[in-house]
Design goal:
Chain lengths: 122, 110
């Protein structure tokens, strides 16, 4: 069974950097896009950005452009979400999700990771 | 404030039919298809409807979706206790060049 396996929960202080990962187990993610979705405590879902694993082409929501960085390593079917300087307001669960198509007609996150809880506190 | 508007809560008894609405605008639902996600407590979201009215493999046919103008709806027929969850609509938004989500509807099975 194909799964997206995310790195474990992390606790950091404001100003610290962090990189979390999302690996496609038992299957290559070739030809797939991997998106990142934020869920703040008790809140809804927000699309942050997405990357195409085959060529690392990425796109960002305007709300997150410049605040995070998305990267990928195709050879190990892994996508990453990175912060250079965390804030307390970055405390949330971050999900990665897979979609075969990324366009206004056919997108669909059909497989999700289990989520990574990031806590930023002094 | 979410770009798509959903009621914060909905409820029904086992066997009933429940409809969850999702209201958007001409830059999202009005011209694009809608996906629906189910999030059980403490778990990751799961796709239950894509391109407005298609069910992924494994999703019961009790779940159906529809769109009309700038609104969409998710219908759950023959409600079951395991359907108790948060439901989110999502649609591509031209201004975002990506998807926007609704605020979520908490469905309670009484």
């Amino acid at each position: 069974e194909v799964q997206l396996v995310q790195s474990g929960a992390d606790v950091r202080k404001p100003g610290e950097s962090l990189k979390i990962s999302c690996e496609g187990s038992r299957s290559s993610l070739s030809n797939y896009w991997i998106g990142w979705v934020r869920q703040m405590p008790g809140k809804g879902l927000e699309w942050m950005g997405i990357i195409y694993l085959d060529d690392s082409h990425s796109r960002y929501s305007p709300s997150f452009e410049g605040l995070v960085s998305i990267s990928a390593d195709k050879s190990i079917s892994t996508a990453y979400l990175q912060w250079s300087s965390l804030k307390a307001s970055d405390t949330a669960i971050y999900y990665c999700a897979r979609t075969y198509n990324w366009n206004d007609v056919a997108w669909g996150f059909d497989l999700w990771g289990q989520g990574t809880l990031v806590t930023v506190s002094s | 404030q979410s770009a798509l508007t959903q009621p914060s809560s909905a409820s029904g008894t086992p066997g009933q039919r429940v409809i969850i609405s999702c209201s958007g605008s001409s830059s999202n639902i009005g011209r694009k298809t809608v996906n629906w996600f189910q999030q059980l407590p403490g778990t990751a979201p799961k796709l239950v409807i894509y391109t407005s009215n298609q069910r992924p493999s494994g999703v019961p046919d009790r779940f159906s979706g529809a769109t009309s103008g700038t609104s969409a709806s998710l219908t759950i027929s023959g409600l079951q206790s395991e359907d108790e969850a948060e439901y989110y609509c999502a649609a591509w938004d031209d201004s975002l060049n990506g998807p926007v989500f609704g605020g979520g509807t908490k469905l309670t099975v009484l």
